[in-house]
Structure formats: C-alpha cells, structure tokens
Amino acid sequence: MEISTASLNGNAIWGLTETWSSSIRLDDSAAFYAQSNDRNSGTGGLPTDGVLRTINETPYQLATGGDPATAYDGNDCIWLHSNSKSVTMDLQTIGVYQNIYVLATAGGPGSPNYAKFNVTLNYTDGTTGSTTYKLYDWYDLTDVQGVEKYYPVMRRESTGSYTGKMDSSYGPILQSATIQADSSKLLKSITFNLLGKNEDTNTNGLYCGIFAVTGATPAGVPTAPVATAATKNEGDTSGAFNANWNEVEGATGYRLDVATDRKFTSILSDYNNKNVENVTSVEVSGNDIHPDTTYYYRVRAVNENGQSLSSNRISTDLPLWLKNALADTDYANVEYDAETNKITFKQDVELKGTLVLPTEDATTIELGGNDITAPKGKPAVSAGNGTNVELIISNSGGEGNGGITGNGTDENGTVYTATVTYNERVFSTQKQIEPISKNRVDSVNYENSNIYTATDVVKGAPSTSVVNLYKETAKSLMTAEEKANYESTEVATD
Q1: What's the rounded Cα separation, in Å, for the pair 457 and 463?
Q2: Interhelix angle 463-477/480-487, nearest 10 degrees
Q3: What DSSP state is assigned to residue 463?
Q4: How far apart are CA 213 and CA 115, in angstroms?
Q5: Which of 33, 47, 304, 487 could form an S-S bond across to 14 if both were Cys, CB 3.0 to 4.6 Å?
Q6: pLDDT band at residue 453 under the 50/70/90 scheme
Q7: Can you list the positions of beta strands (E) in 26-150?
Q8: Of the segments 109-113, 184-188, 268-272, which one has the largest average pLDDT value?
C-alpha cells in the first residue's frame, strides 16, 4: 500500500541529524529515536531504514524520508491533539484490501490513560466503514482486542537520558491495530479521528501519533493481470477505446477502473470497480468518454476469494502536461509509461512549451542519448506550483551524448542558454530546470550522468543535495579555474 505523506503533520521520532527542539516530542520532552542515535549501539531505537515488523509479522514502512543519512528528520507521523482532532490520509494506490493495519500510540492525563480512537475507511463509491477502539498510553500495557503491542522501542529525553525496558513488563510501546476492510470495494483514503474518552469532542489533553499504515489483500485471490495497450476502432471519433489485458489462470471475472488521472483519484462513475465478467477486452464508451482526452485504466482478477491486486496502469494517449510541451509532429517521437510516469525521447526534440511536472508524483525523463531543446526564453522543465515533486533525469542507451539545452532569454532578460549534457563534463550555473523549491520537492536525481551544477540548473534547493551528491567527483575533474569559480558560488536554498 502506497500512502501519501502529505498528511504527516507531526515529528515524534528523533532523527539522526536533528537537534532537540520542542517540536520533536510525543510526551512532554521525550520522543522515540532512530537506532543510530542510541548511545547503546542501536539498541531500542526505531530501525533507520524505517522497515518494522511486529511479532505477528505485520510489515510497516515508517516515514523515514528515504535517506538513511537524515532518517526521520522532519514530519514523521500524523499527530492528533485538541487543536487537530481529525486528519485524512490519501492512498497513492487506490485498491482492494481485506485488512488495514495501523501502527499508533497515545498519551494523556488521568487514569486510565487512553484515547478513544476512530479509523474511518473511505471507499470510491462514497461509502465508509468505521472502527473505534481504545488507544492506550505508550506506558499502559492494558490488552485491547485486535491490537498487538510492539515492545522493542525506547524513548529518549531531551536531556539525553533513555527510559524503557524493551519487554512485555514495561513500556514504551507502539500498538498495531487490525481494521477489517470491505474487500469488494476500492479504498481511496483513511480518516483518523481523536475522540474523548466518552467518544465526545472533549479530548481533555489527550493526543495520539499514527506512525504507519499497511494494507493486506485477501488470501487465495488470483495474481494481478497484466494490462496491455489500448486499441481503438478504425474511424471512431467519439473517444471510445478498448481496454485490454492478459488472461489470469483461475479468474472467474475481472473488475475495471477508468480514470482521468494516473493515480485514479478521479475514477469515472460508470467504470468504478466495474464488473466486466470473464473477458480480456472491453469497449470503454459512454457520456463520460470524450475525444482528445487521455484516460487511464487498470484491471483486477476475481475468484471466490476476492479481488487481486490491480494491474499495471495504461494510458490511452500521452498525458496533457506532456502534450502541451510538444509540437503535434513530435507526439510520435516520445513514449510514455503510465505505470512509472516515465517519458522516453526517441529522437531529438525541440519543446514547444515547458514540461510542467505533475504534482504529488515522481517523473522520470529518459533522454536516450537525444538532445532536448527548451522553448525559446523558457525553462525546459518546471515544477510549476506543484507540491512534493520528484524528478529523475536518465540518459541510458542511445548513441548521442544526450542533453537539455536552453534557448534564448525571457521577457525579463533571464538567460536560458545553459547546456545540461550527459556522458561528458559540463559545469553550468545558468537556469535550465526551474523552479523546484525545497518545500515542494522530495528529491532530484541524475542517473548515468556527470552533471556538475551550482545554483540554477536546478533552481534553488535541492540544488544543495544535487551539488553534494556530485561535488567531490565534480571538483576532482574541474580545472583550477573551474574549481575556484565553483567554490565561490553560493548555492541557492530558497
């Protein structure tokens, strides 16, 4: 289960490089901590890689941020308290689940030390399922049906002292709750609600932290189908298309989703978990289907045990944000993979407009040895006003060097003449890929390439991380003059 981290609003795990502050706390001045922060060689801390398994083998992926060097720094949990009693977490991959597992803990004054905790499952058909249980304080070992205690953790005080015994006779603990889902419906989001002890709005100083969520599919379901390319009937101008997939052994039927976005947050009402019987091709048509519109589909196999995981995603055309950057004659020179959100250039292309990356997503640009020229006076790639944008630029295969080249100046006189190339040494400070802000980006990676960049090839942070990634290699290959210029350049971190 892939979840959106946009809902993370609390910092209750002391990260590897964090300095103690009042924002890093679960109870008074204490927090959980990463293993590498433990003075006892890693004993008792939460795993640095964020992968945690309970005694019953329920797997969780904690929000470490993906970089062990800065594990858990920043927001790492959903924090519910008197001023924030409800938070909804969106699923990046909407799907069918038998159970949802929630890893959380709570605290508060008085006895008994528990919060009434409500988990509401929100399905794509508009229905919901609700479960409420007692979420006890991280030092209260009271048993709750359907809730497993996770002991191998300790807490660290702001003073540097450690408390906890890491066994079933003491605390602190995390609590893993099993929430039953409706496996006939598509789950799109989960809402967490903090209630008072009497299930009212008076929380009386109670609080809780949700650290991870995991989904489990029903046992004995078929394997996921493999969706194949869409086809259209010759001469049909209505926008209708045929969704296709490979047959799955043991399947007695299939369910089809069609959406207007890659993440299936906007599923068409007529194709929301649609039962299409035991076939491997279905015509998608109707009032919601229009010409010159890109649709996405995926399919699940069904048997007596339930539905499989969803297939790979297929798009019926290039996405609009990509088409807007291309001349009509270049549509055939670009391939798009809806499953990975990857663009592959098959030959040199001069962009008509800026590639404005989709928000809350990771995009890969594969140059394939081809040269991409930015539109005149504009950047080649931009995050626009998006949030949580991730960009990977790769240059594997192909016979050419491959690169992204600027083209002229804008109306403000900003120069876009830099050349970003691959497989050869180029040092550039001009603006070419912009604006990707530190507050709106997860990471920028350059694969199979030697890019040595200062401030503005990727404007602002994470230029810092990009420079740090390649700095030592870059400096070792620079001439003395280049090295002097590099070291005198201030890296932007807006």
Answers
A1: 8
A2: 160
A3: H
A4: 19
A5: 33
A6: very low
A7: 30-33, 51-53, 59-61, 78-80, 86-95, 99-107, 114-123, 128-136, 147-150
A8: 268-272
Measured CA to CA in angstroms, residue 345 lies from 316, 417, 431 at distances of 18, 21, 22
Q: Give 120-155 pLDDT, tens digit per residue.
A: 999 999 999 999 999 988 888 899 999 999 988 888
Q: Report the run of H or E that residue 484 belongs to, with start and end.
A: helix 480-487
In the predicted structure, residue 17 carries a pLDDT above the cut 70: yes
Question: How far apart are alpha carbons 236 and 412 in whole angstroms?
Answer: 46
Query: What pTM was estimated for this model as a whole?
Result: 0.72
Is 219 in contact with 231 (CB distance < 8 Å)? Answer: no
Q: How far apart are CA 47 and CA 35, in angstroms?
A: 6
Closest CA to 187 of 98, 63, 103, 117: 98
Beta bridge partners of 84: 81
Range with the largest mean pLDDT of 92-101, 304-313, 413-422: 304-313
Tell me how far apart the alpha carbons of residues 119 and 192 are, in angstroms, rounded to a whole number: 5
Residue 273, phi-psi category: left (phi > 0), alpha (psi -120 to 50), beta (remainder): left
Dist. CA 448–CA 404, nearest whole Å: 15
Give the residue from 142, 200, 218 showing the smallest Cα distance to 175. Answer: 142
Q: Which residues contact residue 302 at a Cβ distance below 8 angstroms, ignoring those fewer than 6 apart?
A: 221, 222, 251, 252, 253, 254, 255, 308
Peptide bond into 59 cis (omega under 30): no
8: which 2 tokens? Answer: 């993370």
- Range in 275-289, 402-416, 476-490 with the lowest mean pLDDT: 476-490
What's the pLDDT at 388?
Answer: 60
pLDDT digits (tens, 9 = 90+) for 251-262: 999 999 999 999
Residues in the chain: 494
Q: What is the mean pLDDT of residues 467-490?
A: 44
